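Help!! Second protein's tokens look totally different from the first
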Amino acid sequence: QLQLVESGGGVVQSGGSLKLSCVASGSVLAYYDIAWFRQVPGKEREGISCISKNRESTNYSDSVKGRFTISRDDARNTVELQINSLKPEDTAVYYCAGIVGFLEQCGLKKTQYSIWGRGSEVTVSS
């Protein structure tokens, strides 16, 4: 069974950059679509980016498009999320999630994913 662990969160000033990593173990990452979600207390978990197996597709929510870039290196069992031009509203706990990939396009709905990491907190100070 795939296991996912996020890292790279922290406190960053508005306008700064951060790179989050999601390291996989327990199974072959290449079989899985991987997505990043974020959640603020009291709000729904929001899907922000995904990358399909074999890098066939990527997808971004409107709230992060143009600022966030997702990438994967299956040889290193790692999916990364490069976050640029951070805004205070990007403050959240960021989660990576996985599902065995069957479709050409990956999705951003939390119900599509069955494997979750524990999250990494990002705080953007103004």
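Here's the second one for comparison:
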Amino acid sequence: QVQLVESGGGLVQPGGSLRLSCTTSGSALDHHSIGWFRQAPGKEREGVSCINSNDGNTDYTDSVQSRFTIPRDNAKNTVYLQMNSLKPEDTAVYYCAARFTVQAMCQLRARWYDYWGQGTQVTVSS
């Protein structure tokens, strides 16, 4: 069983930065791929980024490419979402998710993941 806790959300002005944290408990990050998702009011949950714990490969949705990164600290059982050059359209509740896998892959599809955190609100507004 894996428990996930997100933190780091808040209010930021357009062009600003935030770093979200996803800390796991109950199981180490070994062999768990982690994904970050977001859901804005009235919209479907969208895959933002993911990282594979086996080889560190990452993936990003087009709208955040070159603005967001997904560093990982296995010693702290934490995966981050570093968000730079934030835009109002980035406003959403952000969730992290985990799936145990021995394959060198991760996905941006929500259904692929088995465990979810409770979410953290990110608001980008002036």
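Reply: Different proteins will give different token patterns, so don't panic. The CA atoms of residues 6 and 22 lie 5 Å apart.
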